[in-house]
Amino acid sequence: MKLILLGPPGAGKGTQAQRLVDKFQIPQLSTGDMLRAAVKAGTPTGMRAKSVMDAGGLVSDELVVGIIADRIAEPDAKRGFILDGFPRTVGQAEALDALLARTDMRLDAIIELKVDEKALLGRIEKRAAETMAAGGTVRADDNPEAFKVRLDAYRTQTAPVSAYYAGRGTLKTVDGMMGIDDVTKAIDGVLGV
Fold it and tell me: How many CA atoms lie within 13 A of 68 on its CB side?
């Protein structure tokens, strides 16, 4: 099972990805985690990425796709994977398509969790309040101001990726405003499991 989960921050991608990991025994691939692992492992692509990051730059689409290519070639990803946080731009989506074509791979599904942005802000505020009430520390990106910045970045950079896949007829949408278990059932329906 080779999947992409799309949706704005707070839509529940992480929760649903973990359920898919458990169900299919496939890895969830986060580009940030993969970049850090490649740098730590000292791979050629990782070393190129490290020099860019050390200089304060953004890692290019070419390097990110190189990291993805290296990671999906690892044994634990042979049966499938869930891409999380990638592709972030239409350019990355096009590069991923080219990579998959070169490696004779095909995605089983591209699923977008559709959510109401105002309700999302309420979710984030509630999560922050519950965390504080439980004596926990609220993640820096879970305060309303930071969330709005993340949402704006999603709208301008990543939302066009959904349109890209919709234009190709490969995007499936799920109502991410349903309860967690209902979202899981809807994703299972899209996947035919």
Answer: 31
For the stretch 107-145, pLDDT in tens is 999 999 999 888 888 877 887 888 889 998 876 666 777
Strand partners, 109: 3
Six-digit token pair at 94?
């096009």
What 3-state class would DSSP assign to 113? strand
Superfamily (CATH) of domain 2-191 = P-loop containing nucleotide triphosphate hydrolases (3.40.50.300)
CB count within 10 Å of CB 175 equals 12
The packing angle between helices 144-153 and 117-133, to 10°, is 140
How far is the C-alpha of 124 from the C-alpha of 145, rounded, in Å? 11
pLDDT in tens, 8-51: 888 889 899 999 999 999 999 988 788 888 888 888 888 888 88
Q: Name 172's bridge partners.
A: 111
Q: What pTM did the predictor assign?
A: 0.82
Q: How far apart, in Å, do the first and last CA atoms of the chain sit?
A: 11
H or E segment and range at residue 153: helix 144-153
Neighbours of 40 (CB within 10 A): 10
Helix or strand holding residue 172 (H, E):
strand 171-175
